[in-house]
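Let us work through a complete example step by step.
Step 1: write down the sequence.
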Amino acid sequence: MKQKLTSADLRPDLEKAESELEDLLDRVEALREWIAATRKLSGKRANTPEDQAIPISPRRRTKTAELAEHVVQVLERMHRPMHVNFIAIELSRKGYPLKAKNPAATVAVALSRRPDQFTKVGPNTFDLVKKEAKEIEVVAG
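Step 2: predict the structure and record it as tokens.
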């Protein structure tokens, strides 16, 4: 003979199911946070709206080719060698702010990696390579 189920009979099973569901939802949230943080560290963007719960900040990258062009303009306008601190300040004044934690270091590295365009005339002080010097090298070479 069948017994009639009462709410008292179902209550322990319901509480157990609710507890399991709560644990699973907590685990899901923890995994979403871990995935978003791991993607942020690996440089990958989130693909789904759930993954975008933790905002991923854009990378700070200064494009050195553009930076070099702007520095050429600054040095041509000043007609003299300049220290990287003053170059960074002048770039900001002219509307080319650097997206770097250390703008002076960014300028110094970018200029030292372009010996065909810039010459180091002192500690962290750069000037443009003179055209006459380039022509003499070509004639002599």
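Step 3: interpret the result. The first strand starts at residue 82 and ends at 83.
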